[in-house]
Protein 1
Amino acid sequence: MTVKVNDSCIGCGACESICDAVFSVDGIAQVDESAVADNMDCVKEAAEACPVSAIEVE
Ligand code: SF4
């Protein structure tokens, strides 16, 4: 499973508040790839909550 944040990110912070193990927002969202496997539920939740659909889960 790969998680990416695309250029649409507006840095709103929603993904970090939903899933702070994986996402940290410093201007735009950063992904800690090493934490993705253990946190897929909240990654999916964050992807659905992102207002600009910037989180791509493959
Ligand atoms: S929720 Fe979406 S727009 Fe907001 S910081 Fe995260 S990736 Fe960026």
Protein 2
Amino acid sequence: MHTPKRKDLFMALKTSQEYLESVKKLSPKVYVGGKWVSSLLDHPITRSMVMANAAIYDLAQQEPFQNVMVATSHLTGNPINRNVNVCRSNHDLDMRQEMALLTSQTVGTCNYRCVGCDALNGLASTTWEMDRTLGTKYNERFNRWLAGIQEKDLAVSGAITDAKGDRKKRPSQQDEPDVYIHITEKRSDGIVVRGAKVSQSGAIGAHETLVLPGGALKEGEEDFAVAFAVPNGSPGLTYICQYNAYSAEREMAQDESELGNPVFGQRETSTMVFDNVFIPWDRVFLCGETKYCGKLITRFAKTHRMNCGGACKVGFADLVIGATVMAAECSGVEKIPHIQDKLIEMVRLSETSHACAIAAAAKGREEPQGSGVFMPDDLFGNVAKLNIAHGFWEIMKLAGDIGGGLLVTMPRIKDLDHPEVGPLLKKLFQSAAPAGKRFKVAKFLQHWTAGLHGPGTWHGAGAPQSQRVMISYLTDFESKKKMAKKLMRMEED
Ligand SMILES: Cc1cc2nc3c(=O)[nH]c(=O)nc-3n(C[C@H](O)[C@H](O)[C@H](O)COP(=O)(O)OP(=O)(O)OC[C@H]3O[C@@H](n4cnc5c(N)ncnc54)[C@H](O)[C@@H]3O)c2cc1C
């Protein structure tokens, strides 16, 4: 592998400071809990999202992490951030999943460039196939766009999930057509799109968003078959941010130090509303080719399931396990056998999922042949995600068990500084550790076990039923029956 020189790297890769400067120039129309936000860096909620992106830009500048965070562009040969790389080998796939692990361990929230990275890998493979089979020019167009993104080291988020309306109905049968992104006009210079994408991780602080169809489509659904790149804050685009108890807590906090994940917060998403947004042709990578939507989404999904399922959530689990050990130490139970058993069970659950991601990368292959694009193994990618969807709840249950009721009954951390109740709390909550340390650990675990991460892990990269469907499709049950019959010395039916 080409190992980029340090000097080159600093020229090719954005620093966190450069990213923060670039965010100041963005002017998306963002709405958070009843208010329009004029500056992403000045609002406590949007700022946490931007700071997480900045920290991940920083990782690529640090020598020990460059093997994971820096790749070589197949388009230019230059060193690039792995978040905008197309996987060209099993090694690339392995480093991609390692990046998901590392970024989660570093920020304890999303790598907000993750979905975009997997979306661009799905597009690299599918546009190549479309050009070869249909004679289109999508791949050329996509590569031109990608080379620009790589050169400027831009943050790209990925928009796949439509609002979807009534799940019994196809996109074209919905009473409200805007529940799916669709084309309303084709012009000589581009297309106009309407609709919404929901649960969009970090789209507010991304320079661009890659929009893909949310699922396989049929003939007659051409208006919904569209993939494109849209710059942040394009006219007609509105971002309505998620808002919940943790958002309110962050808004009300005197300072970040009293929060569960002080700087980087929870996973911040928004609903992106497209109100007749114009997309020039050079940013359109699929337009009407319904037959290729299933392939595109399947390629995106298995890549995302390897990364989001088998690695990102394992990084979260590492943080939860680390804090749980600290909680046990604080209360003096760390050597007790059932506590040790539970800690080992947490490690077993998370490392098994990581093993699936490593296997998905190792057994990945070029898809389609000749494209040069490597995709993870389908079965291991899906198993990785399904495994952690269940394992993560279990890990959080065990963290809650060891952490005790304090995780949800604790007073405010700031109460320790109160002139009247502070001394009382310090006296009553001292244990094998001072009350301040105990509260800090408990607050961190509260953020995970009583926060948003359970449903987030369950649904991110697709609800588990979609992985079950894929696993059932990918598994050759007949060949397994055959093996068993052979050992039983049972005649074939
Ligand atoms: C924290 C977080 C971050 C996310 N980030 C992104 C992002 O950056 N980009 C992005 O595009 N998406 C993102 N998502 C969205 C995520 O991919 C979806 O939540 C997931 O695919 C499930 O879709 P849904 O939320 O619409 O659930 P639903 O579709 O409402 O599913 C709810 C239940 O209904 C079932 N169901 C739904 N439809 C059917 C059907 N037709 N047949 C049978 N059963 C059905 C499901 O299996 C599930 O049990 C994120 C989600 C979370 C929680």
